[in-house]
Amino acid sequence: MQKLTSKLKGNKMAQVILLVLYVLVTSLSLYLAQASVTAFLLLLFSLLLLYYTDLSNRLKWVIAGVVLVGVIPFVASTGPSYQSYMEVATVVGIYVAMALGLNIVVGLAGLLDLGFVAFFAIGAYTYGIFATGQAANFMPFGTFPLSGGTFWIFILIGCFIAALFGILLGIPVLRVKGDYLAIVTLGFGEIIRIVFNNLDKPVNITNGAMGLASVQPPEIFGFQFIYPNQFYYIVLGILLFVILAVRRFEFSKIGRSWKAVRENEIAAQSMGIHLVRTKLLAFAIGASFSGMMGVVFAAKQTFVDPTSFTLLESITILVMVILGGMGSVPGVILGAAVVTILNLQVLTEVTNYLNQLNMDGVISFPEALAPAKMQRFIFGAILIIFAIYRPQGLIPAKNPVFDENALKEGAKNHRKEKITIDQDKGFQA
Amino acid sequence: MSILTVSNLYKQFGGLVAVNSVDMTVEKGSITAVIGPNGAGKTTFFNLITGVYEPDKGNVQLGSKSLIGLKPHEISRQGIARTFQNIRLFSNITVLENVMVGLHKQLKAGIVTTLFQTKGVREEEKRAQEEAYHWLEYVGLARHLNEDAQNLSYGAQRRLEIARALATNPKLLLLDEPAAGMNPRETRELTEFIHRMREELDVTIVLIEHDMKLVMEISEHIVVLDHGEKIAEGKPAEIRNNVKVIEAYLGKSAVTPA
């Protein structure tokens, strides 16, 4: 086995062949099998394998694109569970984008936010209110619901409104640090939910606990997005933008200032970093991703009510970030996928299977230990195991590696006239 | 010509007067030392200058501009950089990135230009890396550019703090116990290095230090604090023989024979 792995390392050709074989086998089994969750998950797993190959980044993106856009929807389309697979994939995408947003706040800027789902709610309600008849209650002009064609603009509007609320929340909240920040953000998350729950009087804006029903589906050139397999592509598109944006911010002046603030606030300030502005920017950008996905969520569910935005949701997103690896983009993507799929697919499948055994009389569970009740328990146990054995996350954050030789050449252009640099002696230990 | 003028600076924490009506002027291009026993208020004095604390009374002037009421990052932008007594590096990022943070205020990249990775941003980023590398070369840490800052040896971490401070392009550099924890050889190298910085970089240096050999050798002007008050100032030779200073360090019995 060790021989095999050492042979594979560095041999791109072999890696590509194996990867293609793997994708072929799993897609074929998914294509032929009727509703095989295992095959679907194994196919998704190919993306993780792809991440660990030695291929160039560009090639990895192309292959991932082919698998996500072409292979997965195509081979899943034959079975009766097509829509349920695509539903899972869409939800995974939504959570990945949110987890990446929270990763900026928690992982890069080091601000523990326990009310992150509030921004998701703001995005969802922004579209929900205007894409149902609800807005007619308080808007002095215009006819509502707005058509599904406005959905695309609302993605941007949701993004900006969430960012705006990120800043509004940040201004009072960022006066406190650490544990206190966690508590205050938790409070903010709850406030938003409760406000949405009660904003049906005096003016009915959110329709309170009844929620907003029959949100207009997105529409483009007369084509309506209704089914999960159609939303899948919308989510994929936004996700691509989010990942690109996160990567660019992370390795820029802005990302460095976030990390500096995370590592040491006083030192960061004495380097000329504006503390409040830097933190607000992290809040705003993180929130904006969540806001965009909130709009998509509202359109996909066609129904928005406050129960979708509880504290548990905020904590689930935080778990994704921590489980995946704080500050690590690939880690957080994996973490979000793992947690979502565990909750939506694996644990439900396991419970169904155990229930089946129970019914057939193979094993008998006492009432108190019924499999359905065990779901949360198993999830909790998995988290504890990870916290103990892999505290740095599934894929720990990596620092960039700079090319010393290129810098050595380039640095010569920056030498001040009088400076002497003695490579051998000088100020060296 | 004086670059830093501190007048009547006063700071109280609860009942403790940490800095009591201190006056001080620092000549441009000089090396000034602030010394005193532990708890004399030296670091508080630095914190007041750099805006970490706001003074209760008094004034701090850089050139002709008052620094009172400015936030630490604004003071940094005025041209004061510092190192810390208890090292405050950005531990979990690389050595090169630590220095690049020092270049923060010189970089123009904004949200939109970063998002679109414009040519300007890419070039600026490359220049920043090169300039940061240049500062690492200057303090002799170039080989360690890709290591995490926390993995450096103690002496190297102190040098990285200096490189990071230099990257902000300061007019005035405050060093808080730069030789703490260094062995005699490292201290000697540091002494030489501080001289070199002054000669080559056109920077004024104020340092807090307990190593008297270093202080006497390097500084042109010494200010002695005790219990928050300035008890003496002058040239090294004068301070060496000052009765009050000896008393502060060694106790009354050292100066009044029993």
From TrEMBL, chain A:
Short name of any one Pfam family annotated for the protein: BPD_transp_2
Designated name of the protein: Branched-chain amino acid transport system permease protein
Localization in the cell: Cell membrane
InterPro entries, sorted: ABC_transp_permease, LivM-like
Main location: membrane
Topology relative to the membrane: Multi-pass membrane protein
Annotated transmembrane regions: 12-29, 35-52, 59-76, 88-109, 116-139, 151-171, 178-196, 231-249, 280-300, 368-389
Keywords linked to the UniProt accession: Cell membrane, Membrane, Transmembrane, Transmembrane helix
UniProt keyword Cell membrane present: yes
UniProtKB/TrEMBL annotation, chain B:
Keyword rRNA-binding: no
Pfam families linked: ABC_tran, BCA_ABC_TP_C
InterPro entries: AAA+_ATPase, ABC_AA/LPS_Transport, ABC_transporter-like_ATP-bd, BCA_ABC_TP_C, P-loop_NTPase
Family annotation (PROSITE patterns): ABC_TRANSPORTER_2
SUPFAM superfamilies for the chain: P-loop containing nucleoside triphosphate hydrolases
KW ATP-binding (keyword) present: yes
GO molecular function annotation: ATP binding
UniProt keyword terms in alphabetical order: ATP-binding, Nucleotide-binding, Transport
ABC transporter domain span: 4-252
Protein name: Branched-chain amino acid transport system ATP-binding protein
Originating organism: Fictibacillus barbaricus
